[in-house]
Amino acid sequence: MRYIRFAFLAVLGIVLISVSLANRGFVTLKLMPDDLAALAGFNFTLSLPLFVVVLGGIAAGLVIGFIWEWMREFRIRREADAKAREVRKLEREVTRLKKKESQGRDDVLVILDEAS
Description:
Organism: Jhaorihella thermophila
Domain Lipopolysaccharide assembly protein A: 44-94
Keywords: Cell membrane, Coiled coil, Membrane, Transmembrane, Transmembrane helix
Strand order of the largest sheet: 1-2
Number of strands: 2
GO cellular component, one term: plasma membrane
Protein name: Lipopolysaccharide assembly protein A domain-containing protein
């Protein structure tokens, strides 16, 4: 399985490198359209190679997706933590009750009761 993962990563790397080499031309990114920039009084432009724009867009999409899912699953994680705390509390209570019930009894009988 490890070799399949390495092979997949190698193929992915080769594809990304070939896309990067094929798209080295510079593109201009503008913050606003020209008419709106003239109205606002400023315009931010940036010239980058096309592959940086494409790969940066993919990376930004992944980061936004991860953050979105982390926020969406917050309620589920909070409920799971509450259930885990409740389970630990109940386990302590069961242990305490077993000790209280087994006081003054023979150790062998206590062990047999715990096994059943």
